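Assess this:
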Amino acid sequence: AMAARRGGVVDHRLLLRAAWPDPASVDPETLRTHLARLNANGTLDTTFNVTGTGFDGDVRAIAIQTNGRIVVGGYFKSYDGTNSGGVVRLLDTGARDTTFSYGTGGTGFNWFGQAPNVEAVTLQGDEKILVGGDFSHCNGTVARGIARLATDGTFDISFTVTGLTDPYARQ
């Protein structure tokens, strides 16, 4: 698996966190905000499109799983109008993966009730997802700055980090 802060490479295509191209000078059909994918020759991959309303905030971290699904972290509360609390998994097309969830009624990551700031997403060898950033809780459970999610997105409460008073993880 390939994990990268600014993007990742799969099948010689590159994921970028940014607006592509400049939103002020582009046809709305090719505008990509917060996340875009480029083909090997540098052209916009129009088969990948952030769906609906997309992210309501910045993308800060990307990790690509071995199955091609894309785990995205950042400073956002929702993706396409669905609560995601700073982390969402996308299909190869850019659509939200509905099989990835924190569980029912989950609030995701937050900083004492405020917006999450997920700065790092990386994969362990077993495909479990390590998430780092400036957050205090995940679904109401203390997770100060670092947490682990199972491959389906559920919060792994067995993963604990001790001895840190105010951690902040970045990638």
Remarks:
- Residues 119 and 170 are 5 Å apart (CA to CA).
- DSSP finds no helices and 15 strands in the chain.
- The first strand starts at residue 2 and ends at 4.
- Residues 1-7 have pLDDT under 50 and may be disordered.
